[in-house]
Specification:
The complex is a heterodimer of chains A (about 775) and B (about 220). Chain A is α+β, with helices and mostly antiparallel strands and about 775 residues long. Among the domains of chain A are: about 250 residues, Phosphoribosyl-aminoimidazole Synthetase, Chain A, domain 2; about 180 residues, Phosphoribosyl-aminoimidazole Synthetase, Chain A, domain 2 (Alpha-Beta Complex). Chain A is built from 27 helices and 28 strands. In chain A, strand 4, helix 8 and strand 5 form a beta-alpha-beta unit. Chain A is globular. By secondary structure, chain B is α/β, with parallel strands linked by helices. Chain B has a single domain, classed as Class I glutamine amidotransferase (GATase) domain (Rossmann fold, 3-Layer(aba) Sandwich). Chain B contains 5 helices and 11 strands, in the order βαββαβαββββαβββα. The radius of gyration of chain B is 15 Å and the shape is globular. The chains are: A alpha+beta (about 775), B alpha/beta (about 220). The interface between A and B is medium-sized, with 32 and 29 residues.
Amino acid sequence: MNAPADPGTATGPDTVAVAAASPDRAQPYRELGLTAEEYQRIRGLLGRRPTDPELALYSVMWSEHCSYKSSRRYLRRFADQAPQVKGDSEGGAGGALLAGIGHNAGVVDIGEGYAATFKIESHNHPSYVEPFQGAATGVGGIVRDILAMGARPVAVMDSLRFGPADAPDTARVLPGVVGGISFYGNCLGLPNIGGELAFDPCYAGNPLVNALCVGVMRHEDLRFAVARGAGNKVILFGARTGPDGIGGASVLASASFGGGEAAKRPSVQVGDPFMEKLLVECCLELGAAGLLAGIQDLGAAGVSCATAELAAGGGSGMTVNLDLVPLRDASLGPAEILMSESQERMMAVVEPRHVDRFAAICARWDVPATVIGEVTGTGRLEMTWRGEVVVDIAPETAASQGPVYDRPVVRPASQDALAADGPAALTRPDPGGLLDTLLTLLSWADLADKTWVTGQYDRHVLGDTVLAAPEDAGVIRVDEQTGLGLALATDGNGRYSRLDPYAGAQLALAEAYRNVAATGARPVAVTNCLNFGSPEDPGVMWQFAETVRGLADGCAFLRTPVTGGNVSFYNQTGEVPIHPTPVVGVLGVLPDVRHRLSLGFRRPGASVVLLVRTGSDFGGSAWAWAVHGHLGGRPPAVDLAAERALASVLAAAADEGLLAAAHDLSDGGLAVALAECCVSGAAGCRVSLPGDPFTMLFSESPARVVAEVAPGAEAALAALCARHAVPLADLGSVGGDQLEVAGCFSVARNDLAAARAGVLPALFG
Amino acid sequence: MTARVGVVTFPGSLDDRDAARAVARAGGEAVPLWHGDRGLRGVDAVILPGGFSYGDYLRCGAIARFAPVMADLVPAARAGLPVLGICNGFQILCEAHLLPGVLTHNAGLRFIDREVRVRIEHNATPWTSGYQPDQEISVVLKSGQGAYLADPPTLDRLESGGQVVARYCAGSPNGAARDIAAVASPGGNVVGIMPHPEHAIDPLTGPGSDGLGFFTSVIRALVAR
């Protein structure tokens, strides 16, 4: 597909005057992803046909990716349930929302005058078409969102899902994606502190690459994307604009794949992390010097989005001279300039008296900066090219008044049959087979050692990484003096969500919440990336509606507001959608990172305990899927009250020094968790199971952690658990070089490590 | 009095704050130096930090070598100023011909982030004087082009001249010739090391505090001078 041709045609550029005089000229709105109704709506808004550049602008701004037209009416639920945004902190405890949904990223008070901003975003389709650059620019894009809020980006995470680990195409896509993240994130100098890696046939033609970034700022450094003050200058700075990524939002992110991927390759952007590093330092210096009246990143929809959102956000108008946009390719016309998704660009609104200082700071960082326009009081977004007006619109019609769809929602009839096909009939191992089951799970790619991936990421840079993968959550120190820090985890489970999207969303939330709590941090806020099939499929819309309802209800109960996020539709191959896959990121606050808990067993002789009860939860479990290839029944029973009580116990226990280690139980249950504690730590353990061994070992009941008790803290821990009504079971003790489960099996730590270690290297080299 | 240690920031330097933090932890005063400025602000030693100066364009360190600050640093180093290049800084020192050899792509062609053990083989440099001979330390290796290479006669000369400062204990993780992790100039004042001692100054954020010795060593040497 091509952008509308405008330069060099016999008739000259398509200007507003030309458009008014040629109302019947045929326009390629369908090729740009607009429906006939949407095209008519644009004509109605303008009172004439759009110019080709205007059509380009609306097509990207009204794309599913940018406008959230299918999801918007559901996402309101998140905002409705979030607490009111407060002007400032209410003391040192942290957790107050300083900026919520609708900004580039949500901002949360974390205490001591600091705020954290974080967001997760998809780059699924570009990463399938061109894995390396697709994943690389996914990192770059989310980092600029954080930067635009005024924060210094301090860490990234990646949540990755691919087709079967042994599928030939996974061997093409996965190394490319990991290499792209490694290349971009490492060169940019941001520690990669965790994330996820999972495999399932449903992602074979549509991998999920969700990138998260977290940034930290002082409260007073918070900035918004607004253009105010007539006469203020609009400055485009960073990389020059080229023909890359033209129509990425409308073409790649907003339609399903149906062959012809190679032809879409020009829609994928190319990243330059070195320029991004310069932009980061340059923007922080510009902010510190007080030179920014408004700032916006250029991501999807490029100059279209930045100008329309800045002008609409400030309730002002703006003039832009497109001839002044620095180009890498001089043949680009105005429509292409507006649609280009060239990376590493930012836009600022600057008072005229500050322009020289702005330029000097950019020059110091070798960042090209160009005044391309001016804020006006007209309420119009006007753009000229070669002396003629090619865009003249009300900016809010593009930025916030796009179409909103109420798509048909139908619960698929197959859902009942799926629920009825529970795991009860699956053959369970006899006691002699429990060890084999554990080793099978540990050598299953989803649960195997992920060092092949994480070893390619710099997790040490910036010197504040306290915990990183394979720990339950990443932990970053924010203040060296006080030890204030933050914890972050992302989780999602497509199998659970396939069985019950409402419960699946809450289970994803619960797991990320618990992972953060397992480090001793207090969970305070949520971001999410909702990966779904086509919204034009009523069954998919039902999954989506249920997911949003589940997540919103869960966040309200746990008092962790959704601060922002991203929706990725059209994740399907032909007619077959992926499992509904909400990926939930939870941010927590640690008052002192020196008290954080890690997962490895540490001290021989210490007690090993299990917090909270184990039920029989095998629907959608790792065991059912990895051993039997079975997906059916009900997902594990959600218990958010238990999650909240458990998190309270963990935060207090960490603070009071009652625990030496803690590890969340999730895929593969207690058996896999104990194996990980043994392998990651300094010793094995010897445990007895208070119940049916198979259920105790492999059930995936949520709201559980296994923990090592600090010396002599048994009684204090028991009292703390009793206060919060959290059941506590004594399992045994740390020690030896084996994982020994009394009456069941004993296995050397080395053998556990070996079962996990070679899996990814054997697959990916 | 304390020692003033300059830390140069090039466009694309990433571990400059970490190097400055290590200097401060070791009791020195870290002095920021900007790649585009002439002069060394009277510092007593200089660290070229890790990162991707100039995006590693052309070749790691190849462009940084021509930065204005290098015009003053190179003669000062030849005159005996203690200089430590870490990771990208090591690459810059090789490109500037202050150290022999080159650093090239890891065997396996992938970036490696890993804690490694290295053995300090030469402690007669201002950066390693605080270590015992053959002391083994844990540090962080994180690089894509960390394999140290030189022709055999050069390697022989380095070994016989006491210029191999540190070697990987468990074999080279990246294809470095003769497991070399760090080398020194003939005078010993210029040291390049591929793993990061500045990321091993605190067990909270690294493998331990073994790396702090590089910074305490130079500060002690400077203060005693």
